[in-house]
UniProtKB/TrEMBL annotation:
Pathway: Glycan metabolism; pectin biosynthesis. PANTHER family: GALACTURONOSYLTRANSFERASE-LIKE 1-RELATED (PTHR13778:SF16), GLYCOSYLTRANSFERASE 8 DOMAIN-CONTAINING PROTEIN (PTHR13778). It is a single-pass type II membrane protein. It is an enzyme of class 2 (transferase). GO terms for molecular function: glycosyltransferase activity. It is found in: Endomembrane system. Its EC number is 2.4.1.-. One of its GO terms (cellular component) is Golgi apparatus. This is Hexosyltransferase.
Length: 367
């Protein structure tokens, strides 16, 4: 019996075509499955935090008229509330969860704290994660449109600094309800070990200031701007008659009323527009804040931002605490504690972050 086999070239053609079809179908199926699985994993991987209650001397804030889950509508305008703003995304959600837990755990009046979360994607997913781990938390989630700022962003020394959400802090006054007069802004890579009410009560009216933050006047301020900036008299005169010092924008107390009245979002955007035309700085969202506010803020004790624990922006080397007391530890810089802990290469201070980690591990004995 004689068999007619396909010619080698024809067989090769059909084989390649079949593989391409299978790859296309598999890729589509895997992407859909991975997306669904990723959402499920993210949504279920965090433990529920304990509930924290006010001490007896805490003032009462307005109770909601209806017992609706996370209905903060009637709370928001209360004069007794402490308002905290943070950004949320899936990359840093683990850090955000630890930060929230630390704020609540060390507050004398945790039920008086209202969180304002800003995110630019996965809004419903992130809302669900917060709700499940903090079922009693008073919070609202705001959507930040990346396109508002994406055209103004210039590349910096580290790609993570170029994320549009890093610039959302410049738009808080536009997002948060008008009745909220003051807010504490916190980054996602920090923990508090003190009562946030102390930080929130920082007086801004004395200097008629828009914001307060720890200042670091021993830092080399010229480092934050390029030679192009300093060699241009019209630009360098920006800091004339101002004792301009570096401050970290990851921890700030902001007077939202004064911010709105002075239209400071526009002032920051104007510097970002200039940066697009001529390179005057290298470090993402920080320099525009320095250009607008440095030398005109209310200084806060350094204990409220023990920053730089993530190391420098290139190598992420381990660092020690600054001298003095500690109320807030901030892993600003390249290295994040949860990444180093997972890689089994933690820095010594990462052990201080670990107790606030709500990640649900497969070996957890928690109920």
């Amino acid at each position: 019996m004689k068999f007619n086999f396909p010619k080698p070239k024809l067989l090769f053609f059909f084989l390649i075509l079949s593989l391409l079809c299978l790859q296309s179908l598999s890729s589509s199926t895997i992407k859909k499955h991975a997306s669904k699985t990723r959402k499920t994993i993210i949504n279920d991987q965090f433990k529920e935090a304990p509930q924290f209650y006010n001490s007896p001397n805490c003032a009462s804030i307005t109770e909601p008229e209806e017992d609706t889950e996370h209905d903060t509508g009637t709370y928001i305008c209360s004069e007794e509330a402490v308002h905290v703003a943070m950004t949320l995304d899936t990359t840093y959600i683990r850090g955000s969860m630890a930060a929230i837990l630390s704020v609540l755990q060390h507050s004398s009046c945790p039920q008086n704290i209202i969180f304002h979360f800003v995110c630019s994607s996965n809004t419903s997913l992130l809302h669900s994660i917060i709700s499940k781990s903090f079922p009693y938390l008073k919070f609202q989630v705001y959507n930040f449109d990346d396109s508002i700022v994406s055209g103004l962003i210039s590349t910096s020394i580290r790609s993570a600094l170029d994320c549009p959400l890093n610039y959302a802090r410049s738009y808080l006054a536009n997002l948060i309800p008008l009745c909220v007069r003051k807010v504490v802004y916190l980054d996602s890579d920090l923990i508090l070990v003190d009562d946030i009410t102390k930080l929130a009560s920082t007086p801004l009216a004395e200097k008629n200031a828009v914001l307060a933050a720890p200042e670091y006047c021993n830092a080399n301020f010229t480092f934050y701007f390029t030679p192009t900036f300093w060699s241009n008299p019209s630009l360098s005169l920006t800091f004339a008659n101002r004792k301009a010092c570096y401050f970290n924008t990851g921890v700030m107390v902001i007077d939202l009323e004064k911010w709105r009245d002075g239209d400071y979002t526009t002032k920051i955007e104007e510097w970002m527009e200039l940066q697009k035309r001529m390179r005057i700085y290298e470090l993402g969202s920080l320099p525009p804040f320095l250009l607008v506010f440095a030398g005109e803020i209310v200084p806060v004790d350094h204990r409220w931002n023990q920053h730089g624990l993530g190391g420098d922006n290139f190598r992420g080397l381990c660092r020690d605490l600054h001298p003095g007391p500690v109320s807030l530890l901030h892993w600003s810089g390249k290295g994040k504690p949860w990444v180093r802990l997972d890689a089994n290469r933690p820095c010594p201070l990462d052990a201080l972050w670990a107790p606030y980690d709500l990640l649900q591990t497969p070996f957890s004995l928690d109920s």
